[in-house]
Input
Amino acid sequence: MRDYHINVFYSEADEGYIADIPDLKFCSAFGETPEEAVREVIIAKQAWLEVAQATGKPIPEPKYRPAIYQAL
Output
């Protein structure tokens, strides 16, 4: 089973790391380290999916893949 891709980047403005899941609109989290940001976005992903299911919103299949992985 494929899971959702997580992007992690450093934000100068926030002075910390942001992790986001491109397939889940507005699903992102902050952490002081990359690992913390990933842990937090996994929690956010679970909440995002639970709310979508509870409200009957469509849950997208994992599709996003960075260009570096397109040829694989």
